[in-house]
């Protein structure tokens, strides 16, 4: 039933997209040619513009299909889908412009092309938002559900059930679990153990299942080949949810070693030479621009520190950076001068008597971090990256927090994904590491730009800075 519904929705979706393409193009043509263009200025006849619809509609639908815009939307993120809409339309524009040049129709109205792009993207995103809303409402009311059987009861099964129950808009319903090591009376969040794995074929023959999810525990992987063979005989869609999600990231980096699949435990995009060069170039250019822009602020800060508190202007502290190498990080001094080693006692706390009056202000506004632009120029830090810690805390956290040391596979940053999400100062170090690892494994130049943007609008003022 789900497959029939999916076919219906796909056909309806294709029809809606086709109508949007036609409507957007006709509106763009009418506005640009009939309203904004002076009569008799040498534009092509209307028939030429209408003929464009013949290749345009199927061409755009093929592009939408190529960019996975007709795949099921149960767990597909909205931002990913809307991004693919934009990418497909950009590709369409490039192909269209190339074709006009190839057939020597270079006078074809660019206004029509770009107006169509804006209208088509906007209308298609709105339509997809409405479709998502309709499907979400249907699934919350128990319609268009996908019925799933789990094979294996381990950590993977529990995490899978947790996510399904927390996201009813996905439209999944778990009918039960087959497991060889758990009593039939066992229930997890309303989901029952209904039998043993050897009963799989019997259940497949009498139940209308849409999907089988293999969620075996690590100790039961010797059964995997046999269970997969049984599932494939049934013709029911089968997926495997590994029980090692705490070891391998959600987007593992895989290699094909002459037919042998190899999964890398950790993929760091910045280990790619080209990516590293791009990021370092941005760091150098960005830090130079910031030094020029913030030089008046830094000058005023330096004067105020000198006038209000005796001691050095710059506070230097050892931190651990790329490849676990120590370096000296610079900050404007925001505390009274302390005895050697006194700052090693821990993080600054609320109402810490060591913080000066000016220090409270510059710590709250992150002005004290500006000298780290010099660290960026020297190559010890990056504009964006995990915040560096002192050696004693690195030694402490490496033993207490799994995967903590992975953060040292990239340069530390002045700001980062954890910081713009609120994990600064005296906050959960575990949550901070989760965000740092996400950044390390999912780095793109676009993500760096997003973090810089968020830093400007909500990252400078730090409510956890004391």
TrEMBL record:
The keyword Membrane applies. Its EC number is 2.7.8.-. Residues 279-458 form the Bacterial sugar transferase domain. SUPFAM superfamilies: NAD(P)-binding Rossmann-fold domains. NCBIfam families: EPS_sugtrans, WcaJ_sugtrans. Belongs to the bacterial sugar transferase family. This is Undecaprenyl-phosphate glucose phosphotransferase. It comes from Marvinbryantia formatexigens DSM 14469.
